[in-house]
Design a protein that fits this description.
By secondary structure, this protein is an alpha/beta fold. It has 4 domains: 86 residues, no CATH class; 225 residues, HUPs (Rossmann fold), CATH 3.40.50; 75 residues, Glutamyl-tRNA Synthetase, domain 2 (Orthogonal Bundle); 164 residues, Beta Barrel (Ribosomal Protein L25, Chain P). It has 17 helices and 29 strands. The strands form 8 sheets. A 7-stranded mixed beta sheet has the order 12-27-28-29-23-26-13, with no helix packed on it. It has a 7-stranded mixed beta sheet with strand order 21-18-19-20-14-17-22. A 4-stranded antiparallel beta sheet has the order 4-5-6-7. A hairpin with a 3-residue loop joins strand 19 and strand 20. The radius of gyration is 31 Å and the shape is elongated. The two termini are 45 Å apart.
Length: 574
């Protein structure tokens, strides 16, 4: 397989694979290469050796080296991601077996954290399916773990739904149905299909992996019922008891190997108080409550496909109606976190502001960063019902957002690391300036009376030498007379050439100090990126004082920023 084109394609594919998944995988790279060069199938041994060598080399690179090696392909990679997403967008929401006019689905968050963008994808998909099939969608709080759940998270999820504009038709809570779930549990016990186990968790896990049962599995229903009552009553010796499904410990699907249905959580519940001490697991309460509440179609991430079997098995045993189950791919954002445990760890270490940190892809974080609901909807719905895993960069979402904010964001000047420029000979007629707030939309103007002292960015100032001309954007031109390190002396130039540099500026008396919080990828590989939030200080023109918190402006030649706080005039980058 001689030829630099093939070798270059292999290397480029390995780099992209490593960027997307942390490490390049030989089978994935070979698959891409064969799609491009099918004739190479005739010598798979040689192809495999070449790909393995290049993958090994790529995987030995540090994160910085990988980024540098991929730089020349950056635009091509972004283009490929866009095309893939657009192709995925050509989807429909056809659900096998779904019936128009007899359709109900639900979105089932556990209130133990905040919604993130993957949840938004699922929720929007369910809402659109409900509309397509002329049915309804419920917001179902799966709240049967008092150890982790709080009203704060219920309120946050409701707030996110409202902000995103996702309508739901009804709302209910798993914890409101615990008494009914107890009755179904007792039915399984009486049938000999559930038993109480008191094995240590480590022992239970080891037995399940080996596919062997414990002594409790042989207990008769009366004994199991007696132990179940001990669990409910808090009898002495009941600590550590769980109710397990009596299924098949040899099943290839490990989810069917006698999973836990109820466990003791003797603590205050945010909604039910101390009413219960024995709580159902997701494995038990979800199928039963779906059936009880009239859910006809369950749409969920394909990562849950292994629990489809116990879901349906429990309903079969109890002779309850079975919803249809439809699987969709999970949406992941590269170089970011959705794990609540890991996010909480970073918050605890003081590395994140909270769940609304603008570096996160939580809905609260995206809202604080300035991403609009319409951008999120457009971004997540393009992936549709595809079962192909979606792991994309946040650039696609931010590009969608920029399309929406560009026509409404005011234009302002921001100066970082300000350098003073003194221009003493400005004619009286040039001291009153009127600057458009938007180049094409009619948003009005900001007006300033200019003094003789200005500030420009140091990186612009450092390029200047005596005699150079620059133009203060939308104002007038100057010529440099002298530079003394901390100040530039210049003279007014009536007419500046068309080819001279245009710079943003602020004028003495017409600016306010501000901070910008510049956001980049939260992770580098698997590690926290210490440069993910860089704070810069500078001056923004005084029109910014009239902005409201949450308003977005474009700092010309810098980027879009959302006003996060007026106390320190803090702006977050988009």
């Amino acid at each position: 397989m001689a030829g630099e084109d093939v070798e270059g394609f292999v290397r480029k594919t390995a780099l992209k694979n490593a960027l997307g998944y942390g490490k390049a995988q030989v089978p994935a790279v070979i698959g891409k290469v064969l799609s491009r060069f099918p004739e190479l199938k005739s010598d798979m041994k040689k192809l495999s050796a070449q790909v393995s060598g290049i993958v090994k080399e790529v995987n030995s690179m540090s994160a910085a080296q990988l980024k540098k090696a991929s730089a020349e392909h950056a635009e091509e990679f972004k283009s490929e991601d866009r095309k893939r997403a657009e192709k995925s967008a050509q989807h429909n929401l056809e659900l096998k077996g779904a019936v128009a006019g007899n359709f109900m689905t639900r979105f089932p968050p556990e209130p133990n954290g905040y919604m993130q963008i993957g949840h938004a994808k699922a929720a929007w998909t369910e809402r659109e399916a409900a509309d397509m099939y002329k049915g309804s969608m419920a917001l179902y709080f799966d709240d049967t773990n008092p150890e982790k759940e709080r009203q704060e998270f219920v309120d946050a999820i409701r707030k996110d739904f409202k902000w995103l504009g996702i309508r739901y038709d009804t709302e209910y809570f798993a914890s409101d149905n615990v008494a009914q779930l107890y009755r179904y549990a007792e039915k399984l016990i009486e049938m000999g299909k559930a038993y109480v186990c008191q094995c240590a968790p480590e022992e239970m896990k080891e037995q399940r992996m080996r596919g062997v049962g414990c002594r409790h599995k042989r207990q008769k229903p009366p004994k199991n019922m007696e132990m179940w009552r001990d669990m409910l009553d808090g009898a002495k010796g009941s600590e550590g008891m769980v109710l397990r499904l009596g299924a098949n410990l040899k099943d290839d699907n490990t989810s069917m190997r006698d999973p836990t249905l109820f466990r003791i959580k003797a603590m205050e519940h945010y909604r039910q108080g101390s009413a219960y001490r024995v709580w159902p697991t997701y494995m038990f309460n979800t199928p039963i409550i779906d059936s009880m509440m009239g859910v006809t179609d369950v749409i969920r991430s394909k990562e849950f496909e292994l629990v489809d079997e116990p879901y349906l098995h429990i309903l079969t045993l109890l002779k309850l109606r079975k919803p249809r189950i439809h699987s969709i791919a999970r949406l992941e954002i590269k170089d970011n976190l959705t794990s609540k445990r890991k996010i909480n760890e970073l918050i605890g270490r003081g590395l994140l502001w909270g769940y609304d940190d603008p570096r996160l892809v939580t809905i609260a974080g995206l809202r604080r960063r300035g991403v609009l609901p319409a951008a999120i909807k457009s971004f997540v719905t393009r992936f549709g019902m595809s079962k192909s895993e979606s792991r994309v960069g946040i650039d696609m979402l931010l590009a969608e957002n920029r399309k929406l904010i560009d026509r409404e964001a005011k234009r302002l000047f921001f100066v970082e690391k300000p350098m003073r420029v003194v221009v003493r000979d400005i004619p009286e007629g040039a001291r009153d300036v009127k600057l458009r707030l938007h180049p094409s939309s009619d948003m009005g103007h900001r007006r300033y009376r200019l003094s003789s002292e200005f500030f420009i960015n140091s990186y612009d100032a450092n390029k200047l030498t005596k005699g150079d001309q620059i133009r203060f954007k939308d104002a007038f031109s100057i010529r440099v007379k002298a530079l003394d390190g901390n100040m530039i002396s210049a003279e007014y130039v009536p007419e500046g050439g068309n080819d001279i540099a245009r710079v943003q500026w602020v004028n003495e008396g017409n600016y306010i100090p501000c901070k910008t919080y510049n956001v980049s990828s939260l992770l580098v590989g698997e590690e926290f990126n210490n440069e993910s939030l860089v704070v810069k200080e500078g001056y923004v023109e005084s029109h910014a004082e009239s902005m409201s918190v949450g308003e977005i402006a474009q700092f010309e030649r810098v980027g879009f920023f959302k006003l996060d706080s007026k106390s320190d005039m803090g702006f977050i980058s988009l």
